[in-house]
C-alpha cells in the first residue's frame, strides 16, 4: 500500500515538477498502481468510464517510468499485464531497443501474438506482428524478417498490406512465384461474399460470369481479358464494384496461384493501393 498522503499533496506529487527525484517518482508509481487496482475492483455502472480512467492512469505510469529510465526487466510485468493497450506495448518494445535487449522485445511480441490468437484479438495480433517485423528488419535478420512477414500475411489475412509488398521485395521474380503459391496454400480461407439486393441487380450477373470465365483462363491472353473486365467492374460500378473486385482478387489468389499474368496484376494492384494510402 502507498503512504497515505492528503489529496492536496497527491495533486502536488503528480503535477508538480518539484517532485522529480527518483524517490518521489517511485512513490508516484505506487500511487498509480493503487488507483488502478481500486478502479479495476470497482463495480461502477458506467464501466466504460472506469476503463477509460484506467487507461489514462496507465499512460501516466508510462510517463513516470520514462522519467525513471527503468530497465525492460523492471517494467515487463506491467507491460505484459497491459499489452492490449498499444501505447504500453509500443513503450516496452522501444524501451527494449534503447537498452539493446532485442531478444526480450522479440519474445514479448511472440507471446503477444499467441495470446491475441487465443483471445481472437485481431488488433493486438496485427500490432504485435508489425512490431516483430520491424525488429527483425532493423536488426538485419533477413531469414527471420522474411518468415515474420510471411507469417503476418497468412495469420492476419493481410494480402492488401504493406507486409505483402515488403515480402515481394525480398525475392527475385523467379522465386516470388513459388512464395506466392506458399502464401495461397497457407492463407485463411475467404468467406462467401454477401450479396444485398442492389448488388444482385447491378453486379452479380457480371461477377458470376467472371467466376465462370476465370476457370478457363489458362493462357496469358485469356487472363489479360479477365483483368480488363475486372478493371471495368472497378471503374463503372462505384464502391460496390471496388468491394467486389477486392473480393474477387483475393478469391482468385487463393484458387489460381499458378495463373501468373492474373496474379502478377494482383501484385501491382496491391502496390498501387499501398502507394496511394
Task: Spell out the blueprint of helices and strands.
Layout: H1 7-15, H2 22-41, H3 47-68, H4 72-81, H5 86-98, H6 102-119, H7 122-138, H8 142-155, H9 162-168, H10 173-186, H11 197-202, H12 204-214, H13 220-236, H14 238-255, H15 260-276
Helix pairs in contact: 2-3, 4-5, 5-6, 5-7, 6-7, 7-8, 8-9, 12-13, 13-14, 13-15
Strand content: under 5%
> How many strands, which pairing sense, and closed or not: the largest β-sheet?
none
Instruction: Detail the poorly predicted runs.
Output: none
Q: What is the element string, with H for helices and E for strands?
A: HHHHHHHHHHHHHHH
Structure classification: mainly alpha
For the termini, the CA-CA separation is 49 Å
Work out the helicity level: over 70%
For the CA atoms, what is the radius of gyration? 25 Å
How would you state the average pLDDT, rounded?
Answer: 89
Q: What is the count of DSSP helices, taking H or I runs of 4+ residues?
A: 15
Cα shape: elongated
The number of distinct β-strands equals: 0
Amino acid at each position: 500500500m502507498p503512504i497515505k498522503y492528503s489529496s492536496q499533496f497527491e495533486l502536488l506529487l503528480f503535477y508538480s515538477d518539484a517532485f522529480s527525484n527518483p524517490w518521489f517518482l517511485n512513490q508516484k508509481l505506487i500511487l498509480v498502481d493503487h488507483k488502478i487496482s481500486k478502479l479495476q475492483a470497482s463495480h461502477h455502472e458506467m464501466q466504460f468510464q472506469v476503463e477509460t480512467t484506467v487507461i489514462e492512469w496507465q499512460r501516466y505510469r508510462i510517463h513516470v517510468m520514462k522519467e525513471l529510465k527503468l530497465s525492460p526487466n523492471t517494467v515487463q510485468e506491467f507491460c505484459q499485464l497491459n499489452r492490449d493497450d498499444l501505447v504500453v506495448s509500443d513503450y516496452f518494445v522501444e524501451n527494449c531497443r534503447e537498452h539493446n535487449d532485442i531478444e526480450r522485445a522479440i519474445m514479448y511480441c511472440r507471446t503477444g501474438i499467441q495470446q491475441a490468437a487465443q483471445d481472437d484479438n485481431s488488433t493486438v495480433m496485427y500490432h504485435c506482428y508489425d512490431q516483430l517485423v520491424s525488429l527483425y528488419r532493423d536488426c538485419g535478420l533477413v531469414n527471420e524478417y522474411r518468415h515474420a512477414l510471411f507469417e503476418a500475411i497468412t495469420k492476419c489475412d493481410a494480402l492488401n498490406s504493406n507486409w505483402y509488398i515488403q515480402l515481394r521485395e525480398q525475392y527475385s521474380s523467379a522465386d516470388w512465384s513459388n512464395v506466392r503459391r506458399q502464401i495461397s496454400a497457407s492463407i485463411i480461407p475467404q468467406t462467401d461474399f454477401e450479396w444485398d439486393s442492389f448488388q444482385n441487380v447491378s453486379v452479380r450477373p457480371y461477377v458470376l460470369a467472371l467466376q465462370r470465365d476465370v476457370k478457363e483462363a489458362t493462357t496469358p491472353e485469356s487472363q489479360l481479358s479477365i483483368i480488363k473486365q475486372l478493371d471495368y467492374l472497378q471503374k463503372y460500378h462505384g464502391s460496390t464494384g471496388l468491394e467486389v473486385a477486392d473480393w474477387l482478387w483475393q478469391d482468385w489468389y487463393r484458387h489460381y496461384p499458378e495463373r501468373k499474368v492474373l496474379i502478377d496484376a494482383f501484385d501491382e494492384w496491391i502496390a498501387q493501393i499501398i502507394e496511394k494510402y
